[in-house]
Amino acid sequence: MQTAVIILTHGSRRSTFVDDMVELAKFIEFNAKIPVYLAHNEYVEPNWRTLLSDLVSRGFRRFVFALAFLGRGNHVIRDIMGALGVSEFNKWVNVKWGTHSVEVYFTKPLSDSYLVRVSFLNRIMRAIAMDEGKELTYSISEPLEIYERSFGKALEIASKRLVNSPDWVREIVASAIYASGNPKLAEVTHVSPNFIDVFREALIVGLPILTDVRMVASGIRWPRVENYLDDSRVVELSRKLGIARAAAAIRLGLDKPKPVVIGNSPTALLEVLRIVNEGVDVPAIIATPPGFANAVEAKEACIRSKVPCITVRGTYGGSNIAVAITNRLIEITVRKHG
Known about the structure:
The chain is α/β, with parallel strands linked by helices. The protein has 14 helices and eleven strands. 35% of the residues are buried.
């Protein structure tokens, strides 16, 4: 059964609005790897009603309505969802459209997304900082150490094998090579194209970095790093839910969106992905758990999740690689914006 995403806006006669939304639709289609269409409620074509009828006639029967609205106003509740007889968000519902039965799913408007809120806050605070003659700075006290000689060799290897990749990707892969001593990692490191932008935004707005093990937490050079393995609540939560302590620690830590770094535990990574499926916005994942059991499958599931991620595919990995990648990302961010 064919599925399509319809990004649905209020609509505007201003061409710049449409241009912005077209770029959003392209971004979603590139990352989701399924058909994505842009439609509007009024003022500009295609109207979502016309588009829906056209897609149904072409054989589509499942539709994700991605609402590009901030709040639950009349256009969302009455004009769009009401026209289909739908009253709930985040749930597949069978409805009639013309003579056809179709399944529809409405994403919630964006105002309750923590990631949207922190991005909005960051833009406001940047304006306030500029008004006061300051720059928005990072709370980091010491310059990051640069291991130039050894890293330069690793960067040379990464650059030769990733000739078409951006400089920041080459640096990330070089950090993995440097930490592991294994040039093979240039061939097996997966980096989402938009990762650096999402990770940078998370740091700017002050989100803490959540880790799976203490070794990773202690190695990351950033003021706000969290690990919950020693939290007294982990044992109780583990028993209550029947999950491993590593998974319970992740669940306890993801009470709100945070970038996550998994260096050792595929169980922790799988728990992150379960939490993502439950609707928690996890902005970015760095996942390098090694091993021959669940690690390979967990990392491939992470890539398929479409959450911006950096992973070392296959059996390769380790906490040292996760730490090296994370510290290099922090350095890139501070160097460019700090």
